Amino acid sequence: MARKGYLLAEVKVFDSKHFQTEYASKVNAILSEFGGVVIVADDDPKVVEGGRDVSRVVIIEFESTDRLKEFYESDVYQTIAPERLRSAHSHLYMLAGVQVLA
């Protein structure tokens, strides 16, 4: 059984208008194409350890790590990804879920 894939995004938006109109408003439709589901979206994350300065944390679940990779590397996503970089500092992580044994 394939492990679920998760995209963790830590974001510090510095141009809210550009981020919203050129990236955020478009990414959800692309996520849907690849079966991505936003399971966490927090615009006021509380950092309890470490020195991160972020204004948003998002976790997106995919049916598999392969599907996550397909999303991230897709032409349609890579077309809008530069808009995120133009309006926010961010760290993105591709993560594999824990395989639960029954």
Automatic annotation (TrEMBL):
Q: Which residues form a coiled coil?
A: none
Residue span of the signal peptide, if any?
none
Could you tell me which SUPFAM superfamilies the record lists for this protein?
Dimeric alpha+beta barrel
Residues annotated as domain DUF1330:
4-98
What is the name listed in the Swiss-Prot or TrEMBL entry for this protein?
DUF1330 domain-containing protein
Species of the source: Paraburkholderia solisilvae
